[in-house]
Amino acid sequence: MISREEIRNLAQLARLKLTEAEEENLQKDISSILDYVGQISAVSGQGSKQGETLLSDSKVSPCLLKNVMREDVLYENTPISGKREALLAALPKRYGDFAVVRKVIQKDAE
């Protein structure tokens, strides 16, 4: 189970202010999620092809999972079509075609 201290650390990294009750609920929820991910990791590689996994745990109904990839498609008639430069110009700080934001994964930031 994830510790209360780890929950507080995650909350600090995400810049969240949690009550004791929220910390307790989050501790239970994240522990459940990590247990589930552990179950998936345990059966990883048992599929018939690379990228496919057969889940047969009693808590998870058997199903075949596989990665589905599709081609990236550029749509011309979207609400922001042709407004790329205007959007980039509106950024408070940018580096070329990228938005510059402050670092958020830092333990001592409040």
From TrEMBL:
InterPro entries: Asp/Glu-ADT_sf_sub_c (IPR036113), GatC (IPR003837). One of its GO terms (biological process) is regulation of translational fidelity. It holds the Pfam family GatC. The lineage of its organism: Bacteria, Candidatus Adleribacteriota. It comes from Candidatus Adlerbacteria bacterium RIFCSPLOWO2_01_FULL_54_16. This is Aspartyl/glutamyl-tRNA(Asn/Gln) amidotransferase subunit C.
